[in-house]
Design goal:
The chain has seven helices and two strands. It has 166 residues and is mainly alpha-helical. Helix 3 (71-92) packs across helix 5 (115-131). It is elongated.
Length: 166
């Protein structure tokens, strides 16, 4: 008689059953305060290099003969932005701030975000939000889906929870 799993290894195997439940991504959308917390964490991450350079210049500037923020520091900020707002979300659906807040970006159909979504969301969407003096963020407060202007532009929604690793 043939077994799919040998009987002696079956006793050491833990069988896990998962139930799949169909829900709408709107039902698990992240609350506004978690989105704000994630945004502030991301903002602090991007401001850390220039602030540290300014502090060190103030303390050690006369000794080292340096003043202001160098172009190298701004290159570091751009690299951090690319990693945090494009690379990390492309692979995990989360920026560093979203990881800490326990929220994830997905497309409106619940599938993982793609590079095109991220470029629209984090490029054009944030630009439009800045041009509206931040009013694009307040859309998340007044609509039921909790989506901001950049979410609508990128075709994304931010939901509570982390993406399951397969």
């Amino acid at each position: 008689m043939e077994y799919a799993v040998q009987p002696d290894t079956l006793s050491n195997t833990i069988l896990q059953m998962e139930e799949t439940v169909q829900i709408s991504v709107n039902q698990v959308s992240a609350p506004f305060y978690l989105r704000c917390a994630a945004f502030l964490i991301d903002y602090m991450l991007l401001l850390a290099p220039p602030v540290l350079v300014l502090i060190s210049t103030k303390i050690f500037g006369e000794i080292l003969g340096s003043s202001g923020i160098s172009s190298f520091t701004w290159y570091i900020v751009v690299i951090l932005w690319l990693i945090n707002f494009l690379a990390l979300p492309l692979f995990s659906g989360q920026t560093f701030g979203k990881m800490l807040a326990g929220i994830t970006m997905v497309k409106t159909d619940g599938t993982p975000v793609r590079l095109s979504n991220l470029l629209l969301r984090n490029g054009l969407g944030y630009l439009l939000t800045v041009l509206t003096f931040g009013l694009g963020f307040l859309l998340a407060v007044v609509n039921k889906s909790g989506r901001s202007l950049h979410d609508f532009v990128g075709g994304t929604i931010v939901v509570q929870g982390r993406r399951k690793r397969t």
